[in-house]
Amino acid sequence: MLANQQRLEVLEFCQQLIRIPSVGPNEKEIVQYIADKMVKLGYEEVVIDEVGNVIGKFSGVNKKSSLLFDGHVDTVGVTDPEQWAADPFGGVVKDGRIYGRGAADMKASIAAAVCGAAFLIKQGFKPQGDLYICCSISEELIEGAALNQVLKKYQPKYVIIGEATDLKLNIGQRGRAEILVECLGKQAHSSQPFLGINALKLMARLLTDIEDMELPRDAELGPAIIEPTDIISRPYPGLSVIPDSCKVTFDRRLLTGEKPEDVIKQVESVIQVLQKQDSCFNAQVSLAEAEFTTHNGYPLKAPKFAPAWKLDPNHPLVQVGLEALSAVGIKPEIGYYAFCTNGSYPAGKMGIPTIGFGIGHEDQAHQRDEWVKLDDLFRGTSGYMSIIKYLLS
Question: Which of 33, 116, 266, 282 lies at a CB distance of 3.0 to 4.6 Å from 184, suitable for a disulfide?
Fold first, then answer.
C-alpha cells in the first residue's frame, strides 16, 4: 500500500503530465518536465537522448539482469475541446477519476512507474540489475521507432510496456502496418468520360474486393484486419476532370509471423485478379514510411510496420509478473492488447521478453473525456513497485 504522501505525489505528477499538451513530435516541454522530476526523485542518472526520449536509471548491484519500463509521452490531439465534460488539459479529479487527454494513453502509467521506481529505491531496495524508466516520444506517429534507439543502447533483459491493461498482465498484441494503394487511370473531361479511365471507379472496385479478402485469425489476438482510413484523388478538386489517380491508405492489423512482403502480396493478388478481368485496371501497392524531425532535431525515418508478438504464458517473466501482482492484491490475470504498442520493437523485432502492465482501460485511448480511476493509479503504482522488486531481487 502507498503512503498518503506517495499517493499525493503520484496524483500531482499525473495531473501535471496531463496539463502539458504533448502531441508528437512536439514533446519538448513534457520531456524536460519528466527529466526534472526524475532528478528531484533521486534517480541516479537522467538523460535526454539524441532522439528526444528521457531515460532515468538506477544501477544494479551486480548486473544480474536489467529491466526497462517504457511509456510514451506523446498523445493524439484534441479537435473538439468544447465537447469535453472537463478541460482536456486540466487533469480534473471528479468522482474518483482523473480526466484529460493522455490519462489512459498513457500518462497515468508514466506517473506510476516514474514515482514507483523512486519510492522503492528510497525504501532501501537494492536492485540486482539495472533499472531503466524510459519515457519515449512519438509513438502515436510510429510505434517503436523512437524506443528502438533506447533498446539498442541499453539492451535490457526484460521490457515492460505501460500501455493501459486495466491492471492485467498483457502478453501479446496485434501489430500494425500502413499500406498505400494507388489506382492509375487517364484524365478526360467529365462530359466525355469514355475518353478517359476514372481512377476513382477503379478504386471503388478494389475497395470492394479488398473488403472480401480472407485474412488469418489468431486464437488469442483475434482477427487480422484491413481497413481504409483515407482517400484522395488527383486532380483535387476535380473541376470537370476525370481523376487519373486515386490513393487510399489502409490500416492493416497484423498477427504473429506476418511480414511486410506478406501483407503487400495479399493486396497485389487482389489487384492481379482485377487486371485479368480488365486490361485497363492499373494499381500499385506499397508500405508507407514515417519521416519527421523529433523535438530534439533528430531525423526519424522508418517503415510503418510494427509486428505482432506473443509471449508464452509459462515464460518465467510472465509467471514472476503474475506473482508480483498477486503479492500486492492485484488479481493475476493475463490479457492481450487489441491495438499496437511500442512492444513491437523489443518483442516483435528484437526478441526481448516483454509484458504489458498499465493503468486504465484500453478503450479509453483516443476517446473524448478520457479517464482513469484514482484507485487504479495508486494500485498500479504498487504493481510496478512489486514487479520491479520481484524481477530485480
Answer: 282
